[in-house]
Amino acid sequence: MDKDTLRRLELLNQLSLTEEQKSEMYSFFDRRENDLSELSSIDTENTERMVHVLPILTVVREDKIVQNFDRESLQAGAPETDEGYWCVPRVVE
Amino acid sequence: MEFYFEKVNTSLDKKIVADDMLLTKGIPTTAGSRMLDGYVSLFEAEVLTRLTNAGYGLCGKASVGELAIDLLGETSYKGACVDENGKILNPVAEIIKSGDAMAGICLDANGYVRRAAAQYGLVSVKPTYGTVSRFGMIPVACSGDCVSVMAESASACRDILDAMAGHDDKDGTSLPESKCALLKKSAPVVEIKRVAVITDMLCCDDTVNSAVNSLVAKLEADGIKVDRIENDLIKKSRNAWNILMSAELCNNVSRYDGVKYGYRSNNFTSIDELYTNSRTEAFGDFLKAAILFGSDTLSTENYMRVYDKALRVRRLICEEFGKLFKEYDAVLMPACSAMAYSIDAVRANKDMPYTENLYTAPASITGLPAVAFEGVQLICNYFNETSLLALCEKLEKEGK
Amino acid sequence: MRYETVIGLEVHCELATDSKIFCSCSAHSYGAEPNTHVCPACCGMPGMLPIVNKRVVDYGMKAGLMLNCHINRVTTFDKKSYYYPDLPSAYQTTQWFAPVAVNGLVEIETSEGKKGIRIKQIHMEEDAGKLVHDIREDTTHVDFNRTSVPLIEIVSQPDLSSAEEVEAYLERLKALLRYARVAECEMAHGTMRCDVNLSVRPEGSDKLGVRTEMKNMNSIEAIKRAIEYETARHIDAIENGTEVLVQETRRWDDIKGKSYAMRSKETAGDYRYFPDPNVMPVVIDDEWFDSIQASLPEFPEVKREKYTTELGLSDYDAEQIAKSIALCECFEDAYSVCGNAKDAANWMISEVMSNLNARQMTYDMLTLDGKALGELISLVSGNKVGRANAKKILNAMFDDAAVVPSKYAEENGFIISNDTGLMDKVIKTMVEADPKAVADYKGGKEKAIMAIYGKCMKELRGNCDPQMLRTKLIEYINSL
Fold first, then answer.
1. Which residues of C touch chain B, with CB atoms under 8 Å apart?
2. C293 in a structural domain
3. Are residues B255 and C280, on separate chains, in Cβ contact within 8 Å?
4. ipTM of model over 0.90
């Protein structure tokens, strides 16, 4: 883990670490790299990846509209709304 | 000491407590995070609906560590529950011990439920992945998240499992009813005849080792053949699970951004500041570390080397268990390295959720059922948890 | 030096389903009140789980087959992570590892002739919400109605080389997807959106130049303008060194007629795709695949060819009807009942289309029962109902799908009685009322009779055989 990569990770995840937290992250990532080295000795060349532990089955639903929630309750806990919209600082493109 | 996050009056006499990972209608669900302080869901967890229909009444919600990924609840934004000697207490277990509730319903993502049950001498069951609906659970690591039960006895666990298990159309990973039915009380029970103890996993203190030895003695006294075997792969489960769990967690908590609901920083002038300051102020240190690590495992540079590798190791671990279950009906291992932890020791070890899950990661990464009983953990093949609980019931009766 | 432009397109089409891709909210977001087609799932709240809408997979497959793609019989969904206010969970569920369709081919025709454009892949994914910037100066307003509306993204290989080809390609996609009834593909409604990847290189070179991606073109005309502008910008940079080209995303400003580099964040680029643990792989078995294959329409050019060679329609008529699969189906059903292709085509082109226009409906919106139209045409050709009344019946059929032409004709007294006694009486009355027309007719102005004919028809409320009325009228006048 280097300074630039850590900075990039912070930006990607919308987090900002203090200097102290950053210095702890370097050793934290070193330990994760150690964890990883224990895996690299395992031969996985002929093994398929396993995303789901269940046997494969297809789950689909019919194309049917069910509208159970109203705007007022969905926005009840919102930090800021206006005229039925959620609000954020102006986004410039 | 207050173990409840939220108390509820219920007229139903079979009282249960839920951890704060289960969404509840009308009362807050925080997942132990400042980010969700005061957050009230518009719908409730499917398991709570099913349990209410079966006559169980929710008496309250118990605090959890932030997003339930720690193993002792120390990362809750409300702070850890600690007794006067600095020993960390588990809220769900405490509430059951106090008699307020007969059982706790919790999200087992990284194993905190099993280890709390083991430390308190309670019984817990993490059922086969896909047999209990995850609808209405705060998502952590969706490929391993399981709704689990903690209770005084194995029979109480079986009763609750009977009420909770079942197919749910609202969960795309829910198994068909025919499979879920194998967890019902009416399902046939197979006799547990052979148990393997994985010696590589016995790296724990005397209190835990003596619990292992004592249960082994009981099993043998009951005519069960117990073999001590070595296994190098299963103990590496945590290395792979930490990767999968952190990546999924990172993705699952990305939705908490201060826009739609939950915590919003007062300090921002742009959208990026709103996101960054809200998340930075609301998330705790360990969650932040887990997010960054999880994100890193998925980066273009690391995906194949790290994440994809972990997915392949997961299959090997499943296959390894598959081989073991050809010879054995259950695998015995500890659920924790010690029966008690002090807050100071936990504070000193920043990695605990990534290292102490040595014992709990094998069942998490495989979705296998796991039972905590008399201070140790038993893992069995998919859909055999009722058989395992039946054995525990038998041992409970013999013990009395 | 001469240059060639190398263009690849990423085309997003909103699928015409009723509900969203992963939740059951309405997918008809166009013009709805903000945040009224939303639920906890599509506004980023925790605890709900995605369940795939089967029709989205149906349509993904159909689109793939229409574009000659190979269909991946096990297709999976993956998560793509980035922060933007229109993305409530900060991830988009899309297809990265195993998209529904790959390796297709679309044939286009331009003034230069025919050309095949290779399709790299088609993947299914969820749309983002909408941001509104013009309500308050300092604030962006967020609407999640469009969040999770199903899309397909059609990714072409860089096989296009001009604005003309791009237009032909987009028109072709639109025609094929509309034929399969999977998407409206209307750029003005935002149901078709297009990003243009463009680079320029010396003609004959096999090395690609620096590639830029352009977004925010809202019409095919804008896309053509953007391509011309961007091509010129690239050539200018190469020849005159006016600027250094960099690989970047640019935003097209159609009013200014220029493209601008979009603000590039340090974070750009790493979407951290990974398989969605909540969505099981979708396995398309033979039964499912075959049912989709069987439901595919013929291509427009096949319809046109069939209509002219087999049914004897004029090129113009065939072209008109083949414009929409809805017109084709209605026409073919009508023909199957009435047995006269020319009659059926005439009714389609004159009456059906004008009814649609009067109702401000597109051709694709036609739901008229073609078999009932065929019955109506038979009533007219069999002299059972007059043409004017038949138009009234058609109008009623547009208003109410339950209208049965023969029954409606009977109930409203539209059946031609051919009561000769009544006809004779009416002719006599009308002829006596207009001696001038009679005199004109007898004086050689044959057309003068039409005025009397019209009055008779009106008096008879259209319920007589026009030929019989005409013959009887002439006979009567001649007998005077």
1. 40, 43-52, 79, 81, 83, 85, 88-91, 140, 142, 269-270, 272-275, 277-280
2. no
3. no
4. yes
Look at residue C292 and tell me if it is in a domain. Answer: no
Of residues C84, C135, C280, nearest to A58 (C-beta):
C280
Domain count, chain C: 3
DSSP labels, B229-248: E--SSGGGHHHHHHHHHHHH
Crossing angle between the packed helical segments B206-221 and B385-399, to the nearest 10 degrees: 90
Angstroms from B271 CA to nearest CA on chain A: 5
C467 interfaces chain A, CB cutoff of 8 Å: no
- CB B239, CB B355: distance < 8 Å: no
pLDDT at B321 over 60: yes
Angle at C360 between CA C357 and CA C362, to 5 degrees: 80
Instruction: Identify the DSSP state of C199.
Output: E
> What DSSP assignment string belongs to A3-55?
HHHHHHHHHHTT----HHHHHHHHHHHHHHHHHHHHHHTS--TT----S-SSP
**Residues 6 or more apart from B368 whose CB is under 8 A from it?**
B128, B129, B321, B362, B379, B380, B381, B382
Nearest-angstrom CA–CA distance, C409 and B113: 76
- Whether the pLDDT of residue C267 is over 50: the answer is no
- What pLDDT does residue A58 have? 82
What pLDDT was estimated at residue C266? 42
Q: How many CB atoms lie within 10 A of CB C2?
A: 7
- Count of the separate structural domains present in chain B: 1
- The mean pLDDT of chain C is 93
Q: Considering chain B, what percentage of its residues have pLDDT values greater than 70?
A: 100
Q: Are B131 and B165 in contact (CB under 8 A)?
A: yes
**To the nearest whole percent, how much of chain C has pLDDT over 90?**
76
B96-99 — which CB contacts under 8 Å span 24+ positions? B96/B17, B96/B120, B96/B122, B96/B150, B96/B151, B96/B152, B97/B122
CATH code, domain with B184: 3.90.1300.10
Give residue C39's domain range: 3-286
Do C229 and C165 fall within a single domain?
Answer: yes
C291 falls within a domain: no
pTM of the predicted structure, to 2 decimals:
0.91
Residue C236 belongs to a domain: yes
Q: Which of these three, C364, C394, C411, is where a domain ends?
A: C411
Decide if A59 and C26 are in contact by the 8 Å CB cutoff: no
